[in-house]
Design goal:
58% of the residues lie in helices and 7% in strands. It is mainly α and 221 residues long. The chain has one domain: yeast vps74-n-term truncation variant domain like (yeast vps74-n-term truncation variant fold, Orthogonal Bundle). The strands form 2 sheets. The chain has a two-stranded antiparallel sheet with strand order 1-2. Strands 3-4 form a two-stranded antiparallel sheet. A hairpin with a 4-residue loop joins strand 1 and strand 2.
Amino acid sequence: MLTFAEELLLLALNDEKGVLIQMPIMSFEYGLVGAILMELALMNKIDTDLKNLILVDESETGDEIFDKVIRFIKEYPKSKDAKYWVNVICSRIDNLKDLLLARLIEKGILKEVEKKILWVFSKRRYPVVDNKEEKEVKTRIRDTILSDEIPDPRDIVLISLVRTCGLMDEIFSSEEIETANSRIDQIAKMDLIGQAVSKVVNEIQKMVTSAVASVMMGPPA
């Protein structure tokens, strides 16, 4: 079974070109970190409420990424909220996307292709070998959102991540999104870590928008 972070990365890749689709890159990086924390929560390694994220089981999992995050949280004895840890982990694991790409290649889901640009510069691409895994993820999300059934915990997490990273357009038409918006919001609010990730992303986007506006306006006369 793929992890949340691996599923999110698959959804963010253009199947044919093997590159990330256009989106705010920081949103995606924070989304991947949120995916790691959400996975640890479902593994009962961490617990969280509106104010605190705590380590409840410090034993290692055997997974390099998960265990690194467990050690980060273990280093700091005082409790902090999920938003704090999303920021910290994002700053301390700067190659998360590359680690996840390597895993998907190892699992035979992606392949690495190196393309020459102007016969000198190389650019790596990661097209899918067989997109059955991505189709399965999209089908799960569609079935959950377009029905009235109680969502599975893993699907709640994934929907929250997809919404935060702005990837709903990769799964639904604009008409479907407009119809299902209230259902998407309802499901996304069921996940506390997902809400923390969303807050971080929104704050960053506001800062970027403000900075761009300041540059456009120029210095005061």
